[in-house]
Structures are given as C-alpha cells and as structure tokens.
Amino acid sequence: MHSPEKAFKDLFDQEYNNLCRYALSYMQDSHLAEDVVQETFVKFWEQKKELVGTPNAKFYLVTAVRNNCISAIRKQQSSGLKFTAETPEPDPEPYITTRQAQEDAKTQSKKIADALDQLPPKCKEVFLLVKLHGMSYKQAADALDLSVKTIENQMGKAIKTLRDYVSAGVTALFALLFLNYTLFK
Questions:
Q1: pTM reported for the whole predicted model
Q2: Selection from 162, 132, 138 nearest residue 152 by Cα
Q3: In Å, how far are 37, 65, 84, 85, 181 from 21, measured between CA atoms?
Q4: H-type alpha helices, 80-147
Q5: Are 147 and 141 in contact (CB under 8 A)?
Q6: In the chain, beta strands by DSSP E
Q7: Do residues 65 and 59 make contact, with C-beta atoms less than 8 angstroms apart?
Q8: Could you report the per-residue pLDDT of 63-106, keeping only the tens digit for each?
Q9: Rg of the chain over all Cα atoms, to the nearest angstrom
Q10: CA atoms within 13 A on the CB side of 81
Q11: Of 33, 51, 109, 185, which has the fewest Cβ atoms less than 10 A away?
Q12: Which of 8-17, 37-46, 64-73, 107-116 has the lowest mean pLDDT?
C-alpha cells in the first residue's frame, strides 16, 4: 500500500501535464495555466487528501481545474487586467539544435492549438476530456453534468471539424500524426 504522499506524487506526475494543457485551453497563457493547476493541486492536498489514490481523484482535479480557470478569468476581467501575449523569448541559447527543437515543438503545438481552436468551446472541452485525459464518455458526462448522448454528439462534431480542418491544408505529416493521436489513442 502506498503512503498518501506517494499516491499524491504519482497522481501529480501522471496528471500535471494533461491538466496544464486543459487549463491552457481556457487561460490562453501557459504560465497562468500552470499557476491554476499548481494551486489546484495544493488545495487538493490541503482539503481533499482523502481522495488521493481513489478513482475520483482525477475527476475531481479536472473539475477543479475547470472551475479555477473560470474563476481566474472572471477575476482578471473584473480587475481590468488583460491576458498578456507570450513572454519575450530569452537570450539565444548556446546550442542551436536545442533552440531548433524548441521552435519545432512550439510550431507543432501552435498547429494543434489552431486545430483545437476550430472547435466550439463546449465541443473543445469534451474533446480534451476524452482524448487528452482519457476519460470515457460516461466519465466526461459525469464531470460536465451532461448526458452521454451529448458527449457522443460533441465528440462526433469535434472529430468531423478536426478532419475538415486537417484536410483544408495542414501538412500531410501533421495530419497523419494528429489523426492518429486523436482517433486511435
């Protein structure tokens, strides 16, 4: 049997990146998205420690991240602050290969984000829960308080929209990678 600390660390290691990507779909700023996810994990540990190691932990975190993103957006809007553009790039790195790899990853991430931006907000949220977080349609329906049929319809709509986007001019390699990731994961 794992200690609660070990179970929490395993949960954090397993879900942190996925939750950051999910939060980014709301926040549109990677630093703010990471802040929301980190704060969510801290509150989870402080207030819901008994859920660590249970199947409900993942669903709780997804819902908490969603709610915390919405709260953060409302707070920023009410304070008059605007989301900032990406922070300026740091000084050039000494190894061009590292820099090139980062630029390639950034370009690919942008293409994926652009494809996902083609989806309506609720459709995008459903797609991310099912494909990024690996939830079943039933689990996503429970997390979003929707019917399974609605989740099925939203997923069908998402896949059709993404296929149309891919066939409308994204490179063949990206299309292959993207469709394999989204449809066969």
A1: 0.49
A2: 138
A3: 10, 11, 18, 17, 15
A4: 96-117, 121-127, 137-144
A5: yes
A6: none
A7: no
A8: 889 889 888 888 887 766 555 544 343 333 333 345 555 565 56
A9: 18
A10: 10
A11: 185
A12: 107-116
Q: At how many degrees (to 10) do helices 172-184 and 96-117 cross? A: 60
Give the pair of three-digit tokens for residue 132.
């990024």
| CA atoms of 60 and 143, how far apart (whole Å) | 8
Domains of the chain: 4-79 (1.10.1740), 96-184 (1.10.10.10)
Phi–psi pair at 87, nearest 5 degrees: -65, 150
Neighbours of 133 (CB within 10 A): 19
Cα distance between residue 85 and residue 77, in whole Å: 16
Pull the structure tokens for residue 84.
């900032």
At 140, the amino acid letter reads A
Gap between the Cα atoms of 163 and 153, Å rounded: 15
123 sits in the region (left: phi over 0; alpha: psi -120 to 50; else beta) called alpha
Structure tokens at 180: 């394999």
